[in-house]
Amino acid sequence: MGAKVKKIEEAPRDVNADITNALLEMPTYYNVRGQIFYVYPPSLGVQLLIGERMKKYKFYENTEKAGTIGLFKTFKEHKEAMVSILALCSFENRKDATKQHLLAEREKALENIDPKEGLALVTRILNYASEVQTFIKHFEIDKEQKQKKRVFELKNKDSSSITFGGKSVWGAVVDSVCERYGWTVEYALWGVSSTNLNMLTADAVTSVFLTDKERKKLHLPANGRVIKADDPQNEALVEAFIKKIKI
User: Fold this and answer.
1) Least confident of 71-75, 98-102, 126-130
2) Are residues 176 and 114 in the same domain?
3) Are 68 and 130 in the same domain?
4) Tens digit of pLDDT for each residue in 31-73?
5) Residue 17 and residue 107 in one domain
6) How many domains does the chain have?
7) Is 87 helix (H, G, I), strand (E, B) or coil?
8) Which pLDDT belongs to residue 188?
9) Are residues 131 and 144 both part of a single domain?
10) Which of 37, 79, 204, 214 is the most buried (most CB within 10 A)?
């Protein structure tokens, strides 16, 4: 074997570094008998293809029951499954993963990969799927999403409009980014990583006008800041806020 791939999963994760790598869609390289290959962050299309492989070889079941040990067992029993997943993520032009002749050629080139190295790479690939939730918690977008849900629920009660759709990946992700950025469906599926795609939808800037009455119902500060009411230094701010929201 040639140069070893950096063991990403063994070192403490640096969230800021992960954010930079995700945003820039940095690939990870590896060496198979002197030939260099890359693992590119999967696009939505590639992520869906990976999901089909995982179902076929019961990766979900093994991951839940035994974690890395379960994956390694699956790799030993069905090495073609791991090789297939690596091949899917080895194309810089991610749509090439749908071309069976190219995929077959890449799988053949990767069939001699060291099992431990292959496991480390596949584990990294599977980690891409959970990356979005890590970033959402890091930026506290999850808390904002709950607040946004409350705002829209209140606005919908007083509105005569009704909204349909957004129940599937087509409406919730693909349609929204295509409309917002003028992308084609093909680009949304293959041209950008699924991490960037999902973060763009999760953290999209949304402005909603609220009356003072609506702010009061939602217990939101009128100036857009969160004030700690039990802090003596905020006494004047709290009093001003209470006066402002009185009806």
Assistant:
1) 71-75
2) no
3) yes
4) 888 889 999 999 999 999 998 888 877 665 545 555 566 667 7
5) yes
6) 2
7) helix
8) 96
9) no
10) 37
Structure tokens at 99: 């071309």
> Per-residue pLDDT tens for 71-86?
677 667 778 888 999 9
Of 136, 169, 198, the residue at which a domain comes to its end is 136
Q: For residue 190, give its domain range.
A: 140-245
Which of 136, 166, 182 is the last residue before a domain boundary?
136
Position 4 scores a pLDDT of: 43
Chain mean pLDDT for the chain: 78
d(CA 71, CA 61): 10
**Distance separating alpha carbons of residues 115 and 220, to the nearest angstrom:** 54
b/e map 179-216, b = 16+ CB within 10 Å: eeeebeeeebbbbbbbbbbbbbebeeeeeeeeeeebbb
113 lies in the same domain as 21: yes
- What's the half-sphere exposure (Cβ side, CA atoms, 13 Å) at 164? 0
pLDDT at 65: 52
Map residue 38 onto helix, strand or coil: strand
Task: Name the least confident of 79-83, 107-111, 131-135.
Answer: 79-83
Q: Examine the pLDDT at 99 and tell me if it is beyond 90.
A: yes
One domain for residues 65 and 157: no
Query: Do residue 83 and residue 131 come from a single domain?
Result: yes
145 and 58 share one domain: no
Single pTM value for the model? 0.72
Residues contacting residue 114 through CB under 8 Å, at least 6 positions apart: 1
Q: How far is CA 121 from CA 66, 71, 89, in A?
A: 18, 12, 10
In a domain, 2, yes or no: no
Distance from CA of residue 174 to its chain's centroid?
14
Euclidean distance between CA atoms 247 and 73, whole angstroms: 65
